[in-house]
Amino acid sequence: MERFKGNLATYRLQLLMPAFFEAPALDGMLKVERAAVRRHFFLRHGRLVGESSSEPMEHLGQVLVRLGILDATRAAAAFDAAETAGKPFGTVLVERGLVSKARLVEALEHKTREALFDCYGWESGEVEFRPGLPPLGPAVELQLGLKELHRDALARLREWKVFWELFPGPDTTFQVYREFAVETVSAVEEHLLHLAAKGATLSELLAAAPEGPLHGARWVLRLYRRGALTPRRPEGPKVGEATRLADLLALARGLVEAGRYEEAVSVAAQVLERAPVPEAHALYREAEVRLTVALADEVLELDGRLYFEPLPRPTPASLTADDLYLYAKLRGSRSVREVLHNAAMGELAAYRALRRLMDAGIARVMPDNSGMPKRRTKTDPYGTPVYVPSPSGRGLG
Fold first, then answer.
1. What CA–CA distance (Å, rounded) separates 119 from 131?
2. Which of 46, 205, 266, 321 is 20 to 30 A from 389 in CA distance terms?
3. Which tens digit of pLDDT belongs to each residue from 8-40?
4. Model pLDDT, residue 354
């Protein structure tokens, strides 16, 4: 492929990317630039092996903190030490034992995926491809399949399309109905409800989400589906849709009565993507609560018994970006229930992601009498006990 330069208004990434993974021997650098944000993606043999960004929010230290891999105080101290020593930040983290190389790679891959997904949504700016891969220096080389990244990026675009079709725009404000979020509300949801009650706009709610706009959008959508948030100027069903909505409501009602809660949640959500129908909100809440109760015992059984194998490189194509994000969050937590309950993707979606991790053999359940070595701890140079995994797997925390 020859050197190429164009405008994103004409050459969107979703149109260009297939050319990169359909020619697996391709090596080169893809530069995507909009206003002050400039990102470089390094490609080798159909894989994304490195990324750099001028966006301050994408600094590795912040990514590690958001994933729960490292606390902010240690991240700042390590960054200062790296600057003083003239060493890469990641090198200092590994040398000091603050972050294992495997966890560092997880964070770098997450950072790279999210940067690429963000570029897929750009409708203005410049895109350029230069054949030939420049020296990457001491950087950790990643192994992210372009085909899988393209699949997940298109899924993100569809997710955003549904979201923005549902709400009038970033200036949308909401009516708050706390009675529909009493039992299942999380700390993030409570914060968003508080802001919405004070008149915060949709863009302000998205900006307030601690893990970024995508997660904020997912929280807002969940609150909307439960009926806890509704747009102040909601659009009703389009002409000709009333009959279709009635059929979907009847189907959702029947699924709840039959105990098929997972399907009922999906159908009620389809109705709510078209209009804020009160009965659909009620059916969604009922199905979600009953499904959560049905899963509670199984999730409870996993607490304290779930351990993780290192991610193979490259990762299995069956796993999505959300699955890998959940994997990183679970490894940084001692409670499966807490992670699933507080996942922006929703408890049901998080449970499905966990099942895919288990099906892939990456998340495993430790039998009660497995004969596995007991967890051992040591003290790191900072005097804090840390978990030393047994050779066969990695534990929570």
1. 20
2. 321
3. 999 899 999 998 888 767 889 999 999 999 999
4. 92
347, with CB counted inside 10 A (0-12, 13-18, 19+), is buried
Round to whole Å and give the CA distance between 118 and 14.
12
Residues 126 and 274 in one domain: no
Strand pairing partners for 307? 364
252, 264 Cβ separation under 8 angstroms: yes
**Position 384 pLDDT exceeds 80:** no
Same domain assignment for residues 172 and 212: yes
The band of 240, judged by pLDDT with boundaries at 50, 70 and 90, is low
- DSSP class of residue 315 equals P
Q: What is the pLDDT of residue 357?
A: 93
| Domain presence at residue 180 | yes
Q: Which of 298, 325, 351 is the last residue of a domain?
A: 298
Domain check: are 246 and 343 in the same one? no
Predicted local distance difference test score (pLDDT) of residue 377? 34
Check whether residue 250 and residue 155 sit in a common domain. Answer: no
- Read off the tokens for 123: 């409708």
Work out how many domains the chain is built from and give that number: 3
pLDDT at 331 over 70: yes
Residues 183 and 39 in one domain: no
Instruction: Name the pTM for this structure.
Output: 0.80
Contact 139, 108 (CB under 8 A): no
Where do we find the tokens 């990317």? 17
**Residue (of 252, 261, 322) closest to 290 by Cα position:** 261
Domain span holding position 60: 4-161
HEC string of 217-251 equals HHHHHHHHHHCCEEECCCCCCCCCCHHHHHHHHHH
CB 66 within 8 Å of CB 211: yes
CB 254 within 8 Å of CB 263: no
Query: How many residues are listed for the chain in this entry?
Result: 397
pLDDT recorded at residue 182: 65
Asked if the bond preceding 373 is cis, omega within 30° of 0, the reply is: no
